[in-house]
Amino acid sequence: MTVTTPARDDSHARLDRLSELARDVLRDCAARGAGQAEVSLSEDRGLNVDVRLGEVETVERTHDRSVAVTVYIDGRKGSASTADLQPESLAATVAMACAIARHTEVDPAAGLADPERMAKAPREFDGWHPWALDADAAIALALRTENAGREADPRISNSEGASTSTAESISVYANSHGFLGRERGTSHSLSASFIAGSGDGMERDYWYTSALAASDLEAPEAVGRRAAERTVARLDPRPLATGDYPVLFAPEMARSLIGHLLNAASGGALYRGASFLVDRCGERLFPGWFQIDERPHLMRGLRSSDFDAEGVATLDQPLVRDGVLVRYLLGSYSARKLGLQSTGNAGGVHNLEVRANAGDLRAIAKAMGRGLLVTELMGQGANTVTGDYSRGAGGFWIENGEIAYPVAEVTIAGKLQDMFLAIEAVGSDVDPRSHIGIGALLVGRMTVAGES
């Protein structure tokens, strides 16, 4: 795949402009009586094309701007936003935020993060790789992706299309502590989705590649063939008897379990009492070998940053150590509500690494011997208030350590608390398309509802 770079990169000049606008907004906030204020400004550009059956379906260029202003006046908070960067619009947005603040209730937990927690001299982490891709070149890549899949196997009977996408974003966050942080990042992707079989025996599946740099993407032909192979592999699924079985989550599915942990450990859920992890920090939730680390300073990491959404400095730090949840995920507001300190997670987590204790999916399946491999999850059946988990699933039955046949229309269920403790293996085959770095994951036993 040919990768080109722009002849001229104006991102620094645009960041300079956003930075000056941020300073202007903060001066206006102070002049209108705000004791504290913060502002976020962003600009996004992108190109997305979709093709289907060899024809162009959509070509979309995007160029969006946004400004969000928050002020604090005598313990009261007001926020307003706009997409217009003209001075009169920014002034009106500040005036609106101040007017709102004067009509809200006093909240002792409201306010900026503590000034001593601000990041010093924020750095970049190799996340800026713009792709000089015009519409014709993007269409050609999408067509190559789709054609490779359609030609891969005669059982591919239809296409749901292929896509090429490229996007770049620049942003500035500034507050009245004197902090100003600038960030820029890019993202690129190729994807394809196909249908195999006919009549009641049709199955669909997909594949995609995504990266910060176009040079890190899989080749279009590889994406198309992988999507086709996954689709054909699902043909002729068999029913599965209801029972308790080991469940092996493919890497792209395994990260959803970590996502449920993050939701339950977030400050917003905790101070509202809407999490099964309330008052459980310091408890062992996983097997003693299980480790999760947050690594916000990885070069070319998908969520790398020196500061969080409030300007608080980020740190390399554990989340789970030797199976024990060692901290929650807190911004300054939720930390104050809980009587704790911000963990630098306003706006979410950065790069997570879940340490492996096993080989890849194939090796884990071989050791498992018999059970369900999950390659698809459906629905939103995870309740982080109670820990109840029930989701539709599809995948393959493993017998004697090998894939025996595809399985569809089953439900896997349990309680997250029990599932976490029942994890037996985490694979080394990390899916690079997410900021949650995890390989295949084996839960020793779950209820699988299939054919009665």
From TrEMBL:
Metalloprotease TldD/E central domain location: 129-235
Pfam families: PmbA_TldD_1st, PmbA_TldD_2nd, PmbA_TldD_3rd
GO molecular function, one term: metallopeptidase activity
InterPro entries (alphabetical): Metalloprtase-TldD/E_C, Metalloprtase-TldD/E_cen_dom, Metalloprtase-TldD/E_N, PmbA, TldD/PmbA_N, TldD/PmbA_sf
GO biological process, one term: proteolysis
All copies of domain Metalloprotease TldD/E N-terminal, residue ranges: 37-101
A GO term from the CC aspect: cytosol
Designated name of the protein: Peptidase PmbA
Source organism of this protein record: Arenimonas composti TR7-09 = DSM 18010
Organism taxonomic ancestry: Bacteria, Pseudomonadati, Pseudomonadota, Gammaproteobacteria, Lysobacterales
